[in-house]
Amino acid sequence: xxxxxxxxxxxxxxxxxxxxxxxxxxxxxxxxxxxxxxxxxxxxxxxxxxxxxxxxxxxxxxxxxxxxxxxxxxxxxxxxxxxxxxxxxxxxxxxxxxxxxxxxxxxxxxxxxxxxxxxxxxxxxxxxxxxxxxxxxxxxxxxxxxxxxxxxxxxxxxxxxxxxxxxxxxxxxxxxxxxxxxxxxxxxxxxxxxxxxxxxxxxxxxxxxxxxxxxxxxxxxxxxxxxxxxxxxxxxxxxxxxxxxxxxxxxxxxxxxxxxxxxxxxxxxxxxxxxxxxxxxxxxxxxxxxxxxxxxxxxxxxxxxxxxxxx
Length: 311
Description:
Blueprint: E1 3-8, H1 16-25, H2 29-34, H3 38-45, E2 57-63, H4 67-76, E3 81-82, E4 95-98, H5 106-114, E5 120-122, H6 130-142, E6 145-147, H7 158-163, E7 170-178, H8 181-192, E8 200-205, E9 211-217, E10 222-228, E11 235-241, E12 245-249, H9 253-270, H10 279-296, E13 300-301
Helix pairs in contact: 1-9, 6-10, 8-10
């Protein structure tokens, strides 16, 4: 039985509507090439036909803010129905993917579907507002909402997940990524926080000319994250323990996206939150606290009940 999925929105510089749809539906080679996403076109062309399709999910409907982008998306990923407004998908689809990464749009786009009981996958970051996180929390707990960076599923971190005990006492996990904290910090938080048994407690900004933050964990270990606005592409995690260290450059976008969509498919099928769903509120509170730390140049308690978003 096919599960019809609607894909909603796009953000400048973010090709997720195209990559997610191509992984679920397969792709039209000419359409994807002409859509203007050469990196996505390059990595999907290197995959075997058997790697396309995830469970019963199929993108049947699409809407973006720009009809020309919607038309290109439908052509690139074999999507049958372009709609004039997101609400037109209600009653027509079984699940939706909100593929915009501007957090301020997420509640408005998602609420009609969540409140109608339609499962929703929201692109990262879920929100930069503590009150909105409170709104989303019941849907996360109920297994009708999923939101995280695909780096949570990076295959390059599989050995760390499987062999964490071999590292001994962890003292430092370091992440390095491009762009800025508000938009890209969530990638490394989602890559690192679910790996660890310890929980983030406080976060502080480091004195430098880019967004750099230090997160203290409840076992005394430290996570440091550098987001570099002027750098060649880098997505890297370094893990330092008392018995072992390792270094991981994350490059396989296709695999992490496919795994993300696989967990969403399981959530849709079972109506239960995924194994890593409990990490999402922790990651988002850490992201919001980091925004506050950058603005105030002070240490912020991540579980502070009065935490306010800094947008």
